[in-house]
Design brief:
tRNA_Ile_lys_synt (chains A, B), tRNA(Ile)-lysidine synthase (chains A, B), tRNA processing (chains A, B), 480 residues, 3 domains, Phenylalanyl-tRNA Synthetase, Chain B, domain 3, 15 helices, ATP binding (chains A, B), 6-stranded mixed β-sheet, 5-stranded antiparallel β-sheet, Uridine Diphospho-n-acetylenolpyruvylglucosamine Reductase, domain 3, Rossmann fold, TilS/TtcA_N (chains A, B), homodimer, alpha+beta
Chain lengths: 480, 480
């Protein structure tokens, strides 16, 4: 290909991808690369540009597509489109059909999370079966900026703010330096067709709200260069995050000892470290014992460090998913309880507490490591209920203040929305497969003694919105 | 004072301040504390609550106020108000009157920066003269959240994102855990009066835009608990920032050697460090040699590290304010040139380059470490020109594309807005006291050979907006 045959912008796009492959060492020469393709402009441009670089890098390219069956005919249309794209580029095509909506019910994940998990699982299987070395995804600079804003809004620490990494294990993102605009331009200039995912316009999804609403405000009214700015910040924070996590890992290698179902840390060494390192050591110890940091909040880290500094031998902190931190002499133990009954043994009774809420506003609930936000609003024609188990809308007249937030108790009964009758909370949790070790972290919002919301699980019938409802109480729970 | 005499909310406010003083070790018992008081609700509540804690902490309290003379009679009214407040609390009152607008013209700072510098200078003088140990300021949790958003929008790194520290040298912020709402409630419940600063409503000031516009959007549409979330993040990032900076300082202590007008670093040790630490070492070396990190951008750090890894002996990078990084054998030297002529010696000619801009958009200018953003807009009745030397509005018809961005050249002439005639750029820079070592970092935006903007200094007459102007080209420069 000589320069004269291609308009300059195309070369600049190709050049940026080429640079990313070389400079960031995303792929090695001769690598087998499976491109994850949804059929949208990003992944369409990705597989097109990779096929143009195929010879130069001696790549063996494949295309993978997951049909999530979430959008009916539209989903099938997309699958066909991607298959034809792969054929036109003369690249092997791998597809799987997953009923995400069904799979989701079992896992308790959100639709988005469940779809992502399904893709990850299929990509990983396809890599193994067909001998691919890498999965290439079409994430770009705007995606990363959006992700950083999401993290910021959700209250993430430095980890979340370090953004989407260009390379993460066997996953590579060759378009990470390109913007959405550059990608669309590339598609147009190369006469590429793509399909539109109708859910991209769904403003009940936070990611879409950020893309369609918040980012345009920031760009037009605050800093037109906010996307490159956020990408620069993500690069800085990511390197710092990797470095600090490395130091925490080194510390654990030197000073943590495996014990039954967990590990123990020498306190003498822990408390000598700078506070920032202590926090990362605790986070990583929890992740190591439990396998992930899901549900771990700032309050948990804070509580464990307080236990380390001020706790007496024998005192403990209960953490999500059956994890426990215990002070034993001059050591801190992290133990994962796999027995479903551990939290109900007499030595660890659930503490009795309640927080009374006098009115709307932001309520800190340190006992649960949560923040509860309540606010009133008019009921409009199509009031927006986000697809988020941590948020509910209730009829304000029937859910009137004062309200009480507290852990559920074995005697609690409630009428789940749509269930047609009252039942024990305990039965509901068992029927809905909430693992025993998680049940101690379930809370209720009540009005006098009526349960209005089994938090994170189900609204109760008495709180539901009716056609005659005029004002709404919206409640949302955040990790504190 | 017994609990019964005080409404509960007042106690909770007092309790939070007391906790901050104890737990964060903001003050020692018997400390002499000078409260900086503007007369607004925050600093009024601050001095009131400190006076209530005076006995308990054996504090010796004083009040300081700077009259910036920026708002005419309103400024004098505020000064009188603060004096009366101090009298009513029986606390010594220290005041200084500074003509900030005049002082600003000499320094080249923005009005806000100049006012802050004037306050800092007066507080520091008053502390010395009257033997105070601390200055207490009224910054609170909302201020910190706003500051973090400002940093994010301006494209700061982890340093800026770590927010306003509760304690910084001799400056303490006893209200850092309180929200604006809690402070106003405290003022009302204690029947405190305060004065309103009319510039708080001025939306051309970024801080006010964030407070009055962006933060309310984030709170109402994204996360009502964003303020506590940002404060938590600031706490995490601040501790990590302190820790990492400590490591960079340790490295410099071990591996940097002072040389004439600067310091030298052994490359063997530098390149062995993680990238994140290398970046912080370079930033800190620059700060040490130059006394500050103003004008230091990400690109400068990047360029110095490239010099360290790939530069030949003898190659160098020019940095702002007369700083130079030079590769000498297996060492990196940072040298501050105090001779105004260093940048013009034959060994360091200014490089010739130009960037041609074909249309509006975001233009990276790596040669200058800058991003230039241009966009077109309709001229409205009161179009907004921010008080920012890095931003201009031009008549789009007279400043039409293609435009050129390049360093100024000794032969350049231009007609400064309002100056009544053409002159040499060189003469303008000398007349306006731009230090010789900074003159190599001055750029021009031109249309063919006409200078439209001496960037960061002055718009040119040919680009100015006229009554008949219909469309505007707004250009803004950011550190890349």
């Amino acid at each position: 290909m000589t320069a004269g045959h291609v308009p300059p912008i195309v070369d600049s796009f190709l050049e940026k991808v080429r640079q990313a492959l070389y400079e960031q060492g995303l792929l090695f020469r001769g690598a087998r690369v499976l491109a994850g393709v949804s059929g949208g402009p990003d992944s369409t441009a990705l597989v097109h540009v990779l096929s143009r670089l195929q010879k130069e890098f001696a790549l063996q390219l494949g295309v993978a597509h997951v049909n999530h069956c979430l959008r009916g005919e539209e989903s099938d249309r997309d699958a066909l489109f991607v298959q034809e794209l792969a054929n036109s580029l003369d690249v092997p095509f791998h597809m799987e059909t997953v009923d995400v909506a069904a799979a989701r019910k079992e896992s308790g994940l959100s639709l988005e999370e469940a779809a992502r998990e399904a893709r990850k699982a299929f990509f990983s299987r396809a890599m193994q079966e067909h001998g691919y070395d890498f999965v290439a995804l079409g994430h770009h600079a705007d995606d990363n900026a959006e992700w950083m804003l999401i993290s910021l809004i959700r209250g993430a620490g430095a980890g979340g703010l370090s953004g989407i990494p260009p390379v993460n294990g066997k996953t590579v993102r060759p378009l990470f330096k390109l913007t959405r605009k550059e990608i669309l331009k590339y598609c147009r200039e190369n006469a590429l067709k793509w399909v539109q995912d109708s859910t991209n316009q769904d403003q009940s999804i936070l990611r879409n709200q950020i893309r369609l609403h918040l980012l345009p405000i920031l760009e037009s009214q605050y800093n037109p260069a906010i996307v490159p700015g956020l990408n620069r910040l993500s690069n800085i924070l990511r390197e710092e995050h990797l470095w600090m996590d490395g130091m925490a890992r080194d510390f654990l290698e030197d000073h943590a000892k495996p014990i039954k179902n967990g590990l123990e840390l020498s306190l003498v060494h822990l408390v000598k470290q700078p506070l920032a390192l202590q926090r990362r050591i605790v986070l990583q110890a929890m992740a190591e014992v439990r396998g992930n940091t899901r549900k771990t909040s700032w309050t948990h880290v804070h509580d464990v460090l307080k236990l380390a500094c001020q706790g007496k031998s024998g005192s403990q902190v209960h953490l999500p998913d059956g994890l426990e931190a215990r002070r034993v002499q001059r050591k801190l133990e992290f133990i994962l309880h796999d027995s479903p009954d551990w939290a109900r043994t007499p030595s660890q009774p659930a503490k009795e507490w309640r927080v009374v809420l006098d009115g709307p506003g932001t309520h800190q609930i340190p006992q649960a490591g949560l923040t509860l936000v309540c606010y009133e609003e008019e009921k409009t024609e199509n009031f927006l209920l986000k697809e988020d188990p941590m948020e509910v809308c209730m009829d304000l007249e029937r859910a009137s203040f004062p309200l009480t937030f507290r852990p559920w108790r074995p005697g609690d009964r409630f009428t789940p929305l749509g269930a047609g009758g009252a039942q024990k909370v305990k039965k509901f949790l068992i029927d809905h497969k909430v693992p025993a070790q998680d049940r101690q972290n379930i809370y209720v919002l009540t009005n006098e003694e009526t349960v209005l919301w089994l938090v994170g699980q189900r609204l109760a019938e008495p709180a539901k919105i009716l056609s005659e409802t005029r004002r709404i109480l919206r409640c949302k729970v955040f990790l504190a």
